[in-house]
Amino acid sequence: MAEIMISILDGSTFVTSSRTGDIDATPDQPHGLFYKDTRHLSRWILRVDGKPPDVLTADSVEYYFAQFFLFPRTASIYENPYVSIIRRRHAGEGFREEIEVINHSTKPIAIKLHIDAAADFADLFEVKDALAKKGELYREVREHELLLGYRREGFVRQTLIGSSQPAEVSEVGFVFELEIQPKSSWTTIMSVRPLSGHVTAADPSKTQQWLRPDRREDVTRWIESVPLVSSEPPIIQQVYMRSIIDLAALRFYPYPDIFPQYALPAAGLPWFMALFGRDSLITSYQALPFLPELAATSLVVLGGRQGRECDDFRDEEPGKILHELRFGELTAFAERPQSPYYGTADATPLFLILLDEYERWTGDAALVRRLEKVARAALDWIDRYGDRDGDGYIEYERRANTGLENQCWKDSWNSILFADGTLAEGPRATCELQGYAYDAKIRCARLARSIFRDPALAERLESEAADLKARFNRDFWIPERGFFALALDGRKRKVDSLTSNIGHLLWSGIVEDDKVESIVRHLMGPALFSGWGVRTMADGEAGYNPIEYHNGTVWPHDNAIIAAGLARHGYREEASRICTALFDAARFFRFRLPEVFAGYERKRTGFPVEYPTASSPQAWASGAPLLAIRVLLGLEPKGDELTSAPALPDNIASLSVRRVPGRWEPADVHAERPDARTPMDVLRDWLAEREALRKAA
């Protein structure tokens, strides 16, 4: 069983370690200091008189700051320790670690403190796939500092380590010979700085500036800038604040030389601390009523890197919005395509959906005009390149074996399965892609008419959208099962498994009225709805597995979108039930919804079961509660006004949002449910649920 790791992060920098604070990277434990997709520290181990200390407690206090309370091992359980060690670690452009050794005794003590350091400079893909390095590692001792380096042709990465206290420095690490007086302490500050390219000497002024993090002030400003949420009971506001802080943690600057002022959320810790088009777009949509600047940033940055040419290696095409951007060694040597990689079929229509939604909320027509050329190119991509065979549907198939086999949001290799478990052939046209394309055209028709001043384009897009809707409801519908096919495969066969994708169709508006009720019945039925949320695949399908990444798990962002789709069609009670399930689940994850959790039936487990490799925090999981709040309050922009049509579940007595930003003056929204269950009612229900589980066991 993998040990519990402590993680801190700041933008594209993150540090993962054991509960003692040690970094000791192995294939099973991806410890390390990671910076811009490279592991700059793979070993960072503290020893006291040659022995590892034990841990009293450890935790991440803030997303960028962790503390580790340790003590040297004693000869027996009857001997109390007389020394304690505190490690205080801040993430920044690398990390700073303050190490304090405290003598609690009445006598002086002599201690030898060792800090061993090493770096394998593994590319993040090398860590995930256990690949060997192709370059040369080197070490140098430089004026009381240790330089760890890696060189492969012109690709150079280094880590510079220094101490504020004198030490014996070798290529292995640092040794401190300490004499600590009674009831006194000793402290050093270790700085670990990742570097790109060669460095001849450290700049002390820059080091000292870097060693004074202002993250707390930054987080305070971030929190003060967002709307205030309050609820009774307080679960919604607790989850909301956790999400706001996590979105602050995930911010990074992907193009400091081109767009230095533009920060947007990385996808998730640990493997996805990078720019992902789909993730940024969905997260920005979720956060629009609270953090509209995320949408503006995502649109500008992604529009600035829109595809310009046909490149099979990177799955790039003119007008296409990128999927992923990396800066590591494997992309530098074109061994992986993420420089950037464009293998996503949904980011392009999602870009257009967000562009319209952003203008509806903010009234920022100037940004829409600025991105008109980008929008027109994206529309052209949908028809020219997205539709690979001219059948009127977006389908995908990778052009190089280094690309993703599935280029929808369920992008694992086996996510598109028939009801009997057979893998669908490519190219694949998943159903939600057609819904996104429909929504994008409807929305862009509005922009064409009101902002681009191109009524001919508006009429064409509306005609195309109407035709797409009619054809889709004919070609994807499975009458004998009463829902839409997950996809059409390469032979135009309907992939007939029941999945959560049908909820995205409600969100997009592509579903004809006579089919909505059947879709809702499936979404809220026991095969899909686990009690904690809608599963990605229904229990009963051959491919269903409650712990398979995309074939039976519950994804918070997926559920928030489904809830929004239900609300769009007037199924507010069902939408509230899904939102309630998400907030209930968040209680068990310390108010932070993870990327994904297992799809076990709620009555079987009594709590949501963790998924072993889920990212946490993760951007669109952090955004899910924000969209859920919008759904519960029925927040919608109507011209220059913010409208609200609350539909609170029976366990929420009140919900308020103050200072909602938009094209209106900051607005306050409040909703109450006088007949809500009391906390005692909720407690009784919880006890009854536990008693039922006990009897079943």
Query: Helix segment count?
Result: 19
* Biggest sheet architecture: 8 strands, antiparallel
Adjacency order of strands in the biggest sheet:
7-8-9-10-17-14-13-12
Principal-axes shape call: globular
Give the mean pLDDT: 93
Q: What share of the residues does DSSP label as strand, in percent?
A: 15-25%
- Using DSSP, what is the number of strands? 31
Low-confidence stretches: 199-213
Structural class computed from helices and strand pairing: alpha+beta
Task: Write a brief structural summary.
The protein has 697 residues and is α+β, with helices and mostly antiparallel strands. The chain is built from 19 helices and 31 strands. Helix 11 (431-450) packs antiparallel against helix 12.
What would your notes on this structure say?
With 697 residues, this protein is α+β, with helices and mostly antiparallel strands. It contains 19 helices and 31 strands. An eight-stranded antiparallel beta sheet has the order 7-8-9-10-17-14-13-12, with no helix packed on it. A five-stranded antiparallel beta sheet has the order 3-6-11-16-15, with no helix packed on it. Strands 1-2-4-5 form a four-stranded antiparallel beta sheet, with no helix packed on it. A hairpin with a 1-residue loop joins β9 and β10 (94-103). α5 runs antiparallel to α6, α5 (277-287) runs parallel beside α8 (347-362) and α6 (292-304) packs across α8 (347-362). The longest helix is centred in the C-terminal third of the chain and has 21 residues, at 455-475. The protein is globular. The model is unreliable at 199-213 (pLDDT under 50).
